[in-house]
């Protein structure tokens, strides 16, 4: 009964770490794009369900149009789902899912750098406006 689980708990935890880094980077980017802290909750409730479907967790990616697959490749949960399912259900080794892990780390780095850039730009514009108000 149930499903075949071939991965050990340490293997799953090892795959979870790059996923968390990628999600933290995406979170940094999303929060830097929002104007207030309250907007985070509204935004999360809006994007959670589409991200869940686009990741291939519920609906197979092969059944989606090419443009949807292109969007899903930019979501960390797509790569994490692929890696964890590969190790846990298909018996792949950690080496076999190394490309998925590398993609998670790359997405995390890209999202973090863009988030830092957006935050720096927003802070610079905010400081510039603050100095203009003081001069008046």
Automatic annotation (TrEMBL):
Any keyword Glycoprotein? no
> Membrane spanning segments where?
12-30, 39-59, 101-121
Q: Which GO terms describe its molecular function?
A: ABC-type transporter activity
Subcellular localization is given as:
Membrane
Q: Which Pfam families match?
A: ABC2_membrane
| InterPro entries, A to Z | ABC2_TM, Nod_factor_ABC_transporter
Q: Name one GO cellular component term.
A: membrane
- Keywords assigned by UniProt? Membrane, Transmembrane, Transmembrane helix
Please state every residue range assigned to the domain named ABC-2 type transporter transmembrane: 12-85
Q: How does it sit in the membrane?
A: Multi-pass membrane protein
Q: Protein name, please?
A: Daunorubicin resistance ABC transporter membrane protein
Classification of source organism: Bacteria, Pseudomonadati, Pseudomonadota, Gammaproteobacteria, Enterobacterales
């Amino acid at each position: 009964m149930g499903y075949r689980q071939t991965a050990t708990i340490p293997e799953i935890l090892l795959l979870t770490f790059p996923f968390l880094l990628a999600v933290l980077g995406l979170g940094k980017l999303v929060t830097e794009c929002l104007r207030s802290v309250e907007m985070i909750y509204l935004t999360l409730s809006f994007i959670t369900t589409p991200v869940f479907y686009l990741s291939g967790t519920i609906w197979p990616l092969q059944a989606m149009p090419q443009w949807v697959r292109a969007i899903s490749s930019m979501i960390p949960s797509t790569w994490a789902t692929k890696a964890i399912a590969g190790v846990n259900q298909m018996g792949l080794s950690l080496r076999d899912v190394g490309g998925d892990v590398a993609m998670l780390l790359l997405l995390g780095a890209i999202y973090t750098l863009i988030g830092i850039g957006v935050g720096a730009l927003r802070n610079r514009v905010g400081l510039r406006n603050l100095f203009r108000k003081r001069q008046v």
